[in-house]
User: Fold this.
Amino acid sequence: MVAEFERYIKENVKLSDGDLELIRSVAVERTVRRKQLLLEEGEVCRHKIFICKGLLRTYRTRENGSEHVMMFSPETWWATDPESLNNQTPSLYYIDALEDSEVLLWTKKDFDMLCAQIPALKAYSEKLISINLNLGRQRIFSALSATPEEKYDEFVASYPNIFARIPLHMVASYLGVSLKTLSRIRQAQLKR
Amino acid sequence: MVAEFERYIKENVKLSDGDLELIRSVAVERTVRRKQLLLEEGEVCRHKIFICKGLLRTYRTRENGSEHVMMFSPETWWATDPESLNNQTPSLYYIDALEDSEVLLWTKKDFDMLCAQIPALKAYSEKLISINLNLGRQRIFSALSATPEEKYDEFVASYPNIFARIPLHMVASYLGVSLKTLSRIRQAQLKR
DNA sequence: TAAAAATAACGTCAAATGTCCGCATTTTAC
DNA sequence: GTAAAATGCGGACATTTGACGTTATTTTTA
Assistant:
């Protein structure tokens, strides 16, 4: 399971063998079964999660119980609730597995230590944050300005790999439209 | 004009007198008239902007010319396009002044230098980024799950100060609803 | 101060969207 | 292997929303 992470991290961060060993030494391996939760609302998020294999979903609910998908995390991506993790406050999010998955976990304490020891990792971590910020902005703009069909097309084009692996009602939830609307869009596109 | 910034920064970052002087020495003061642009689509964003006085708006347009407000920045807030600033790529955004404003500007180069020299500033900058990330997430969740009326109520409650200073059609644009819908909501609330 | 622009409400109408329902098919779990 | 659950389509209906045009009022600008 660690092999996937090694490949990923070597591609993205220039590390000495010692650095890599250090990072690995504080990582915890874990397998997660489909539908299993890694984080629950109200709980304090304890880890940064790297997905070696599988697919995670981060979502949030409203008082009425409706679920709203914030993010999908397939292999070689990360998942966590940074707000809860950094501030040690109860999380508003759920993270669960859409497929049986293999993940690596780091506690905040250990990850902070790693960043302090390994400047290149710290820099990469900052880069990821900045990418996330941009993706978030893009999504807000899309939510404000795009039609449901445009949102759908964007999603399929941006995440073809993920798209094929998740049920449509979760795509709808991610896009902020009803499954009904998504069905209609797909029907209309089929007829062309 | 610098006085506002001094008060702000002293409240939030522990700085030596020398640090403060250094930060000030590379800042450029500028006054902006209402409707004037500080950043235009296609241009590379050159500055981090601190608003001492006034109100800025960051927005983006679609091919059809529609405007979508990403952010309002009143006094003691910041504005910039981090993506364009960091990567020196053409921006997708406009930044303009909704009121006659007074701002301080730092180039990326100078701000990077400041962060390298002053760890406390770097840390604060990171904290701001993380706050922004959380606000972005919150807004996405709201876009996905809230009704127009809930979005409106949230906005008024969260930014009462800003709300009173901007035209309703810009509130509507920020919320991602039409002015018509916003009018209806307000009328309905008046009748209660 | 007068003309022009911006702002926001309102009415009407058509289109888009959501909710609720059932149904068929596939997938999952015991 | 079978029962149960999940998935996704479709119809009917009510509601919401947006587009467009009009008007009144306020604000800006020359």
